[in-house]
């Protein structure tokens, strides 16, 4: 399958915040969830009030909430992307090595991560592009991919120039092999199947044929697939 | 003998740090970043340094200042890229500073191992990736794991909230991050704090870093530079 190079003009797309909203509303009640840099950290602003979900950040925070009101920011209270956050009742602070004990020790139910590339078998590449002028940066991604019970990837479906990010085989160095369970993009929700990606949702107006042209691995439409919709965000 | 680890100023606090030192630096971005100790070290003049920290500095203060004056030979960190990490990126691309990227959990555990006297450990993190190349891999409990060694500092620079004259420490919110794991992992641990209180004022139940891990304490004059660019 060739890499899709469609113009984005007429396609319905979810904004980054709409992806975060959809994901936030799919997290099971009572989960412990780590939010990585990028679209994942936006989820904290859109958690459903009726559920109790504990958000974890690698820098020693459990039980954090949305970004603060303007003027209420605290430089000592930040998320993985060093952006200001707030604490919820019952939240806690701890040393970095404990934060990663929670991750590596299997205590995190879901890790939300960004991606440069994801393969059809769930391989993840998100730490280096081997660019000699742009230093690599792994952060906590390899620990999260190895330690969390599930990894969900939140990413744009294609690169800015229209190349596939969901690929048959990652061209960039791997963060971890076969670690991804679900993929949320601006066009669709997919889960990793045995030898295909199962499309569980698509934006309005998208056909599985058109989605396939933007996606390298073979797609199969789930019998229970939904049309994705989110509030204007 | 009355133990008193409180130094009168930052110049005294960094006295004796030698050329070629490996320095553990607390902080996650600007939160918990001991910028004033790093600036004092720049003025002190030690060079050929290896900096171990989560990030590689932003702006021209702190790690950025030591970098731009050519005092840093190598940075060991998990994530050198940040908004404003221009000096590091330019110097790395030009081959003027070495970089060792370590997964963040492996970084904090290697530092923990150094402070706790652990000889080495196995972790599933990074198995099968570039960051495990050349390292021993063993199957333990049905899972491949990578052998990692402790990462010890000659010196640790830490930012904490409150200290007493013995060096007991508390921290503020997520500025705690690497402080409590770095303080035990160096031969000389130097801590800058927002306030110094009387011995006995800190509740033993809430002391995060016990005094045994701290050698010097110095009080900051203001709120701290953090990573102000």
List the helices and strands and how they pair.
The complex is a heterodimer of chains A (233) and B (229).
Chain A: H1 16-24, E1 32-35, H2 39-42, E2 54-57, E3 61-65, E4 86-93, H3 96-104, E5 110-113, E6 117-119, E7 124-125, H4 141-147, E8 150-154, E9 166-167, E10 180-184, E11 188-192, E12 197-203, H5 208-213, E13 219-228
Parallel strand pairs in A: 1-2, 1-5, 5-8, 6-9, 8-10, 12-13
Antiparallel strand pairs in A: 2-3, 3-4, 6-7, 10-11, 11-12
Chain B: H1 10-13, E1 22-25, H2 35-44, E2 49-52, H3 63-68, E3 72-77, H4 86-93, E4 98-101, H5 104-116, E5 121-123, E6 137-140, E7 143-148, E8 153-163, E9 169-170, H6 179-182, E10 186-196, E11 216-219
Parallel strand pairs in B: 1-2, 1-8, 2-3, 3-4, 8-10, 10-11
Antiparallel strand pairs in B: 5-7, 6-7, 8-9
How would you portray this structure in words?
The complex is a heterodimer of chains A (233) and B (229). Chain A has 233 residues and is of the alpha/beta class. Chain A has helices spanning 16-24, 39-42, 96-104, 141-147, 208-213, and strands at residues 32-35, 54-57, 61-65, 86-93, 110-113, 117-119, 124-125, 150-154, 166-167, 180-184, 188-192, 197-203, 219-228. Mean pLDDT of chain A is 95; it is low at 1-8. Chain B has helices at residues 10-13, 35-44, 63-68, 86-93, 104-116, 179-182; strands at residues 22-25, 49-52, 72-77, 98-101, 121-123, 137-140, 143-148, 153-163, 169-170, 186-196, 216-219. In chain B, the strands form 2 sheets. In chain B, strands 1, 2, 3, 4, 8, 9, 10 and 11 form an 8-stranded mixed β-sheet that branches. Chain B has a 3-stranded antiparallel β-sheet with strand order 5-7-6. Chain B is globular. The mean pLDDT of chain B is 96. Chains A and B meet through helix 3 and helix 4 of A and helix 4, helix 5 and helix 6 of B.
Low-confidence regions of chain A: 1-8
| Protein chains sharing the most extensive interface | A-B, 42 and 49 residues
Average pLDDT rating of chain A: 95
Taking the sheet with the most strands of chain A, its summary is: 10 strands, mixed
Gyration radius over CA of chain A: 17 Å
Beta-strand proportion of chain A:
25-35%
List SSEs of chain B in N-to-C order.
Answer: HEHEHEHEHEEEEEHEE
Strand segment tally of chain B: 11
Helix content of chain A: 10-25%
Name the quaternary structure.
heterodimer
Number of helices of chain B: 6
